[in-house]
Design brief:
heterodimer, A: 498 residues, TATA-Binding Protein, 3 domains, eight-stranded antiparallel β-sheet, 24 strands, globular, B: 259 residues, alpha+beta, Lipocalin, 2 domains, two-stranded antiparallel ribbon, 11 strands, 30% helix
Chain lengths: 498, 259
């Protein structure tokens, strides 16, 4: 065979290079035509950008009671109103000790469980003994809790629809107690009797006792047995926090807004109409308005999507759908990189088989913050998210100091402001007329008194404050009203009708 | 195996593949699809429903980009300040024209060009770029002469983008500007509907007893129905739309982008 000369080697080299170039250009052409790309607008950033995903939260992670109460059995109580999650649920390997959900799960594993309805008095009597109780301001369906925490809920529990309180009493160790606040019904779930030393509730009780604040019933503080037995926290000292906050658009600028918008419309905003107005609002609209995201000047992001639900879905599945959607659209990370926990604060269900359900969430850190309006609301219709509102805050300056309740204990706030409270309650339809003395009317409607950090609504410029204050919760015929008072001077700071 | 021959065959195959891709999918300004409607049948159908086509029905165009535009509002006080500024008389007045009694007659030779040149000075002072690039129309209404500039992108008018320069007695006395400046176009092109689809959509929105004489149907860039107007808008995205002019200047817009 003839050996190739230098000329032949060069020719073969040129052929090899040509082959590689042609091969690469074929790939490129296929990509360009497949994606229908206008080559003039291509850049390397478009090719390398990928959708960022945040971890998908589970329903178990976002459900937590708003308050945990503990009865010492001697007329005194302990309350936890901050972040209750550590006592309610933790991942199994946390090693912190049993949680409330773990205790309930163990309890429901027993055979031959049955349910009986009890009276309000019976419920209150048994929980006045040594007991612990988790309270949900907005009742949750029992089957949602069963699915979220893997509780083996027997068919006997189907009669219980909503859970506004779930409790365990050492005065009746073979029972769990449930209050359905919506229907004003009380239940006793009877399982097997347990030895006290085996009960996970015992170690939980001890753990809660260490972390709770002392509280006494209003009946005891007023010396009137007929009064509302609502618990009044009486801490001698507590941390007073005041934080100013701004909004995400102000903190993260256009980059943050665009990165969030890209999760809805794609990295290159293909076929997306982008409208900016002089006030600072930007509207992103896909096509002729099938999908719209409005980035408000005050820093709130509102997304809406047209379309009919494709199938019916259970509440649990809808919640999973909402959380999956959140993970694809910014998660709970703020522009500064801080990742918050979520707390499911409200479920708004419209009637009808595939009617939309809105899940409203607050953001929780080490402490829990209560919101005038939620931080996040996700509406699910069938298996699709049709609306999404994100209203996160970004803390700016924060001050914390130990505060002594002094003259402005909850009872003093109540005594000072009961006339104003009565007026607000009347204006909001809690009473028609003043048949009784205002103080009596107000205390009767009281549902709870808490010392909490409240995120007050922001101004039009998108700034606001978070401040520790006294919160008085009123409820009547399913209507809830929260009123806030300064711990510094007992003056009213506003109210929210939920 | 003769590797040298194999390479030659692969090179030829790849070359043919590339050529096939380029000629099949490449955009050479050729119409994407043949006309999908029978023109005569369409006209008959429209006439039966009281829509009479007086102009031409354009052919279905190639795919188009979406257009990001900056919205520039000509504030009244800014325009007035410009007209009152030093040197305004040199740039925005036509004293020779004013001295002639026939200054309003724009049909006289060189008259339109004079108004247009003066209006271009004004347009340039307002910062709309090079006014030579924009088509303009000179019209006379009563004792005013108006020069109306239109903005286009890729040959298509940007609807609502308009600069009107008003002359009275040979000098610019007024200006109205809402100018859309294209700043970016979409990475992907969007398919455009056949004009027949737009005409049929028009028929479906028409009262049965009405008769419409369609004078013109043309493809434009359009910002969509916006009930609040563009008063506060500083940036927007224009989509292709069919603009149908009928019954002596009335206009209807039908979205033309197919997603």
């Amino acid at each position: 065979m003839k050996e190739p000369g230098a000329k032949g080697i060069t020719k073969e080299f040129i052929k090899s290079v040509t082959m590689v170039v042609l091969f690469l250009s074929t790939i490129l052409l296929l990509y360009v035509f497949w994606e229908n790309i206008n080559p003039g607008q291509m850049n390397i950033r478009n090719l390398t950008e990928q959708e960022s995903l945040h971890p998908v939260m589970t329903p178990a992670e976002v459900v937590a009671p708003d308050e945990i109460q503990l009865s010492y059995g001697d007329g005194s109580y302990g309350v936890i109103t901050g972040n209750t999650r550590a006592y309610w649920w933790t991942p199994q390997d946390s090693g912190q000790g049993p949680t409330f959900t773990y205790g309930v799960g163990e309890f429901l594993q027993a055979q031959d469980i049955f349910v009986e309805e009890i009276t309000r008095d019976q419920y209150q009597q048994v929980l006045a003994l040594e007991s612990l109780k988790s309270i949900f301001d907005d009742p949750l369906p029992l089957n949602l809790l069963c699915q979220a925490y893997g509780w083996d809920c027997p068919s006997a529990t189907e009669s219980i629809q909503q859970v506004s309180e779930i409790a365990y009493s050492f005065g009746s160790m073979e029972s769990l107690f449930v209050k359905d606040g919506d229907r004003n019904l009380y239940y006793r779930i009877i399982g097997n009797g347990e030895k006290i030393e085996q009960s996970p509730f015992l170690s939980l009780y001890q753990r809660i006792a260490l972390g709770s604040k002392v509280a006494y019933p209003l009946t005891l503080l007023l010396g009137e047995e007929e009064a509302n037995p609502v618990l009044v926290p009486l801490p001698s000292e507590f941390p007073y926090v005041i934080t100013t906050y701004t909004n995400e658009r102000a903190a993260g600028g256009e980059d943050f807004e665009k990165s969030l918008a890209k999760t809805f419309f794609g990295a290159t905003f293909d076929f997306t109409r982008i409208i900016q107005d002089a006030q600072g609002t930007t509207t992103y609209m896909y096509g002729y308005g099938q999908r719209v995201l409005v980035a408000g000047k005050e820093g709130t992001f509102r997304y809406k999507e047209e379309g009919a639900p494709t199938q019916e879905a259970t509440l649990f599945y809808s919640l999973e759908t909402a959380l999956g959607f959140l993970s694809r659209h910014g998660g709970t990370q703020d522009p500064l990189g801080k990742v918050y926990d979520l707390h499911l604060s409200k479920i708004i269900r419209q009637s009808g088989p595939s009617a939309p359900t809105t899940f409203v969430f607050d953001l929780w850190e080490d402490s829990a913050i209560r919101y005038e309006g939620g931080a996040l609301a996700i509406t699910v219709s069938g298996n699709r998210v049709t609306a999404f509102t994100r209203d996160f805050h970004v803390p700016e300056k924060s001050q914390t100091q130990q505060f002594s309740a002094g003259d402005y204990t909850a009872v003093n706030v109540l005594a000072t402001n009961h006339q104003q409270m009565g007026q607000v309650l009347m204006e909001n339809g809690f009473f028609q007329d003043r048949k009784e003395e205002t103080f009596l009317m107000v205390t009767k409607a009281l549902e709870s008194i808490r010392l909490e950090e409240i995120r007050f609504s922001k101004t039009e410029e998108g700034v606001g404050k978070i401040e520790t204050c006294w919160c008085f919760f009123f409820e009547k015929d399913g209507k809830r009203l929260e009123m806030y008072y300064s711990i510094r001077d007992a003056l009213p700071m506003g109210y929210t009708l939920r | 195996m003769d590797w040298a021959k194999a390479k030659t065959i692969i090179i030829i195959a790849l070359l043919l593949t590339n050529l096939f891709l380029i000629f099949t999918y490449g955009d050479f300004g050729i119409k994407d699809e043949p006309e999908t409607f029978n023109r005569a049948a369409l006209i008959q159908l429209l006439e039966e429903r009281g829509v009479f086509i007086e102009g031409d029905i354009p052919e279905k165009p190639k795919d188009m980009e979406l257009l990001s535009v900056e919205v520039i509002h000509g504030e009244e006080e800014d325009i007035q300040a410009l007209l009152d500024s030093e040197g305004a008389s040199e740039l925005f007045w036509l004293p020779e024209l004013w001295r002639k009694s026939s200054f309003l007659d724009i049909q006289e030779p060189g008259r339109k060009a004079a108004y247009l040149e003066c209006a271009r000075n004004f347009a340039m002072a307002l910062g709309i770029g090079n006014p030579q690039e924009y088509p303009a129309e000179v019209i006379q209404i009563e004792n005013q002469v108006k020069v109306i500039f239109e903005n286009r992108y890729d040959g298509y008018p940007l609807e609502r983008s308009v600069l009107t320069v008003v002359f009275q007695q040979g000098k610019i006395t007024q200006g109205e500007m809402l100018w859309l400046v294209p700043v970016e176009y979409s990475r992907k092109k969007v398919a455009v509907t056949d004009p027949a689809v737009a005409l049929l959509a028009l028929v479906s929105n028409k009262e049965a007893e009405e008769n419409w004489r369609v004078e013109e149907i043309r493809l434009v860039y359009w910002l969509g129905e916006d009930p609040e107007g563009l008063e506060d808008t500083v940036a927007d995205t224009a989509f292709p739309a069919w603009c149908i002019r009928y019954n002596g200047g009335e206009k209807k817009y039908v979205n033309a982008a197919q997603f």
